[in-house]
């Protein structure tokens, strides 16, 4: 991600305040309108989940309405059947709990007995007595006058006996209210799913109208791809978790653990909760086995069912079925689970992972929702070169060195220079020209970069192509490297010097403070050579053109290569102006400069000859070569 453009402080403050207010309003609306929002969210997720089978039926010739109704009815029957089975299991568990009372008491006594004689337990009891002392007993003598002031109930107090409603009626009302609310929400979700599946093109068009103005083609492709990825992920996750629950039920049934269907359903449901769901699902049958059965065999059998199944599912099945990561960070998943559980309760906890995945995918494909990908995604929020620059601004040279060292693993040095160090120097120059950096900051970054170069020169390992290029040769080519302006250009030429290597190149890097007359005199002393001018953006084009013109007018036969390393915009315009000024080649990467110079190495360098501009060059040679020095 590119570095954000700087904005005035007051604008950032207004944006932050507006975002805070909008976020608070959205959270409040989600909480107070959860009876509407939860069915809506469930309907959206079910629509994504059921969309692939609906399209499959349509491809087989079945109409849209029959396809939608068939899939929705089958899904409703399946969910209803599972709920009925689980309800029966819960009812049986509640009815049989009293039969296990003695065993539960025995377990509790055994646990309490572990610390019965413990001095630590006695200490805690003493501390509890000190913190919660009992009130002192007050003895009042029969003749004490204070006894007369003890209030007593009046003999004439009126007692009103109110008729009580039957106990079953109050229990029924407490049960029916949440049950009817759940049934109503489920019915609303089913109706919404039907109409969403019937009118999915209409809904897609409305979304495109909102976010796709001016970029209809790219937004259409993005929305289609995002919808397919979400549907594929939700369907795969449902199949994996459902299969997981079936295997758990079968394993516990074989092990002799009662209510295996209930534990399998809990395992399939809680597995939607990231990281802790499987552990929580296994804890319930383990505790049940310890409480209901003598010995440890059943509890061990439960662990033996869950542990290998979770290891295989998490490490082998899911990575292959999901094919690619959905790009959600671990911290985001856990934070989202806590947030949705706080907001909507248990249903929010179950929906947290699918909701987070949907938001991250939308953030990847919808530009206006990119902040979701930044907040919840697992990709770095900043490019590596920006992180490197930020670390050096904080004077954290050790972490910056670790970042560069990690990037050099398996990468050619020129790739590291193009992707990390050149953008670092360009950004440093840009901020220095804006007076956002002090001279001390700039000097520290340049010194750190110089040390990085020395370290890379010792550590770098050659790739196969570079090894072939660096076979010893009988004759070395002469190359004069000229920094266009300042120390940043000098550092860039040091990178070029390392990329080319000393095996077949005799490279002389001219000092930054060299005057134009001194450069012309130095070039005139050579008989075979190339000239490479290092000029990092931003800026520097005008002075680089000036140096090219002076060299070309004085030495018409030399070959001039200009390195505008790190240039991203106006590349063709820069190249045209530099060629017009006398440059033979313009390269924007070290890879290109390496290949170009190695090609020129195979040719015989042209001899140098002074032109008629010799006197004029001496007359104008007092002008400095590097205008920034």
Write down the Rg. 38 Å
In what order do the strands lie side by side in the largest sheet? 2-1-3-4-5
Record field, number of beta strands? 5
CATH homolog superfamily of the domain at 465-629: Response regulator
Question: What percent strand?
Answer: under 5%
Shape field: elongated
User: From N to C, what is the helix and strand string?
Assistant: HHHHHHHHHHHHHHHHHHHEHEHEHEHEHH
Q: Count of DSSP helices?
A: 25
Summarize it:
The protein has 629 residues and is mainly α. Among the domains are: 34-98 and 183-198, no CATH class; 382-461, Methionine synthase domain (Methyltransferase, Methionine Synthase (B12-binding Domains), Chain A, domain 1, Orthogonal Bundle); 465-629, 3-Layer(aba) Sandwich (Rossmann fold). The protein is built from 25 helices and five strands.
Descriptive report:
The protein is mainly α and 629 residues long. Among the domains are: 34-98 and 183-198, no CATH class; 382-461, Orthogonal Bundle (Methyltransferase, Methionine Synthase (B12-binding Domains), Chain A, domain 1), CATH 1.10.1240.10; 465-629, Rossmann fold. The chain contains 25 helices and 5 strands. It has a 5-stranded parallel beta sheet with strand order 2-1-3-4-5, with helices on both faces. 28% of the residues are buried. The model is unreliable at 1-5, 461-466 and 606-629 (pLDDT under 50).
């Amino acid at each position: 991600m590119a570095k954000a453009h700087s904005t005035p402080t007051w604008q950032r403050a207004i944006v932050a305040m507006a975002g805070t207010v909008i976020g608070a309003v959205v959270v409040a609306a989600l909480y107070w309108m959860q009876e509407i929002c939860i069915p809506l969210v469930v309907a959206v997720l079910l629509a994504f989940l059921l969309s692939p089978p609906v399209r499959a039926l349509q491809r087989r010739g079945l109409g849209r309405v029959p396809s939608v109704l068939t899939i929705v009815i089958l899904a409703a029957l399946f969910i209803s059947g599972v709920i009925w089975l689980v309800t029966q299991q819960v009812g049986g568990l509640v009815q049989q709990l009293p039969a296990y009372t003695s065993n539960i008491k025995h377990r509790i006594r055994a646990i309490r007995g572990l610390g019965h004689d413990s001095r630590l337990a006695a200490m805690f009891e003493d501390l509890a007595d000190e913190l919660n002392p009992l009130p002192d007993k007050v003895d009042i003598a029969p003749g004490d006058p204070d006894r007369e002031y003890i209030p007593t109930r009046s003999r004439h107090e009126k007692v009103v006996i109110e008729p009580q409603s039957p106990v079953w009626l109050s229990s029924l009302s407490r049960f029916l209210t949440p049950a009817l609310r759940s049934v109503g929400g489920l019915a609303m979700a089913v109706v919404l799913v039907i109409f969403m599946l019937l009118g999915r093109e209409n809904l897609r068009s409305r979304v495109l109208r909102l976010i796709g103005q001016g970029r209809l083609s790219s937004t259409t492709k993005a929305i289609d791809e995002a919808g397919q990825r979400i549907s594929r992920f939700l369907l795969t996750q449902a199949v994996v978790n459902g299969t997981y629950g079936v295997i758990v039920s079968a394993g516990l049934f074989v092990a002799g653990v009662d209510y295996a269907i209930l534990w399998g359903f809990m395992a399939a449901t809680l597995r939607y909760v990231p990281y802790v769901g499987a552990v929580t699902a296994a804890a319930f049958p383990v505790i049940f086995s310890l409480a209901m059965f003598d010995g440890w065999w059943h509890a061990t059998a439960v662990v033996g069912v869950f542990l290998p199944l979770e290891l295989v599912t998490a490490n082998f099945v899911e990575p292959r079925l999901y094919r690619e990561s959905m790009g959600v960070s671990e911290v985001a998943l856990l934070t989202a689970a806590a947030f949705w559980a706080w907001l909507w309760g248990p249903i929010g906890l179950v929906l947290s992972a699918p909701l987070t995945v949907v938001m991250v995918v939308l953030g990847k494909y919808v530009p206006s929702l990119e902040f979701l990908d930044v907040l919840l995604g697992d990709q770095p929020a900043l490019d590596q070169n920006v992180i490197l620059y930020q670390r050096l601004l904080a004077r954290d040279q050790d972490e910056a060195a670790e970042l560069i060292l990690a990037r050099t693993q398996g990468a050619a040095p020129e790739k590291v220079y193009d992707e990390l160090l050149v953008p670092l120097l360009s950004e440093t120059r840009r901020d220095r020209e804006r007076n956002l950096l002090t001279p001390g900051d700039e000097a520290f970054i340049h010194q750190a970069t110089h040390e990085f170069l020395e370290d890379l020169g010792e550590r770098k390992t050659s790739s196969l192509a570079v090894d072939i290029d660096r076979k010893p040769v009988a004759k070395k080519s002469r190359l004069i490297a000229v920094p266009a302006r300042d120390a940043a250009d000098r550092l860039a030429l040091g990178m070029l010097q390392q990329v080319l290597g000393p095996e077949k190149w005799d490279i002389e890097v001219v000092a930054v403070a060299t005057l134009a007359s001194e450069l012309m005199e130095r070039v005139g002393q050579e008989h075979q050579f190339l000239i490479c001018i290092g000029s990092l953006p931003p800026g520097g084009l005008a002075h680089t053109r000036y140096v090219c013109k002076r060299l070309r007018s004085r030495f018409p036969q030399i070959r001039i290569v200009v390195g505008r390393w790190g240039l991203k915009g106006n590349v063709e315009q820069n190249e045209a102006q530099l060629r017009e000024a006398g440059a033979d080649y313009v390269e924007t990467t070290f890879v290109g400069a390496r290949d170009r110079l190695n090609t020129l190495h195979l040719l015989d360098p042209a001899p140098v000859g002074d032109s008629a501009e010799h006197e004029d060059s001496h007359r104008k040679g007092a002008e400095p070569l590097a205008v920034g020095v």
